[in-house]
Amino acid sequence: QSALTQPASVSGSPGQSITISCTGTSRDVGTYDLVSWYQQHPGKAPKLMIYDVSKRPSGVSGRFSGSKSGNTASLTISGLQAEDEADYSCCSYAGSRTWVFGGGTKLTVL
Amino acid sequence: EEQLEESGGGLVQPGGSLKLSCAASGFAFSNYWMSWVRQAPGKGLEWVASIKQDGSEKYYVDSVKGRFTISRDNAKTSMYLQMNSLRAEDTAVYYCARGAERCFDNWGQGTLVTVSS
């Protein structure tokens, strides 16, 4: 049950696109298409942004997209906006009804 | 409106116990897996435990097995986390979250648990 690996921070200017990576192993990300991404503003609860690798819940902007290749999943945010500045965490099913999260990535909009 | 509200957090001494509650409203609680996820100060999210719709299956992260017990009362649309033998490393904000089959799609605001002497 080791944590998934995410970069500690990423940054981008308004209007640009950024990608956050999430690296796991063949026991989690590499085997299951059950990767989800969460946005968390300071002092707030996490909010689901992407599930099943690339699906968006109702109400989430189309600027958010997800993908996966091998043991690494990615979250891409296009057309960066100031309100996108937040922490982003990935999560993967790890088998036997257990889940593992990444350490979180702080996104700064310059 | 679908809502989850945690309660029961506080300051407890190492080795002590605490019981967290999560009150759900606005959705068919008994139809969903439910989970607890925690976040230590300045750290990432960590899945803690999940419970099936009827309470027949329960799963835990290795670090809390034998110390924490997850339960639910569908008649009261509530979930609980009994935490025993608490350690300093259990200090965190504990979130109640809906789901455990594909993702966690609804979260409460969290309750802070501080384990310190």
Summed up, what is this model?
The complex is a heterodimer of chains A (110) and B (117). Chain A is mainly β.
Tell me what the structure shows:
Chain A has strands spanning 9-12, 18-23, 35-40, 47-50, 64-69, 72-77, 86-93, 99-101, 105-109. Chain A is mostly beta strands. In chain A, the strands form two sheets. In chain A, strands 1, 3, 4, 7, 8 and 9 form a six-stranded mixed β-sheet that branches. Chain A has a three-stranded antiparallel β-sheet with strand order 2-6-5, with no helix packed on it. Chain A is globular and about 40 Å long. By secondary structure, chain B is mainly β. Chain B has strands at 3-7, 10-12, 18-25, 34-39, 45-51, 58-60, 68-73, 78-83, 92-98, 106-107, 111-115. In chain B, strands 2, 4, 5, 6, 9, 10 and 11 form a seven-stranded mixed β-sheet that branches. A four-stranded antiparallel β-sheet of chain B has the order 1-3-8-7, with no helix packed on it. The termini of chain B are far apart. Chains A and B meet through strand 8 of A and strand 5 and strand 10 of B.
Helix content of chain A: under 10%
In this structure, how is the largest beta sheet of chain B organized?
7 strands, mixed
- Which chains make the largest contact? A-B, 24 and 23 residues
> Rounded to an integer, what's the Rg of chain A over CA atoms?
13 Å
Query: In percent terms, what proportion of residues of chain B is strand?
Result: over 45%
Main pleated-sheet profile of chain A? 6 strands, mixed
Q: Helix/strand/pairing class of chain A, anyone? A: mainly beta
Strand segment tally of chain A: 9
Measured on Cα atoms, how large is the radius of gyration of chain B? 13 Å
| Class of secondary structure makeup of chain B | mainly beta
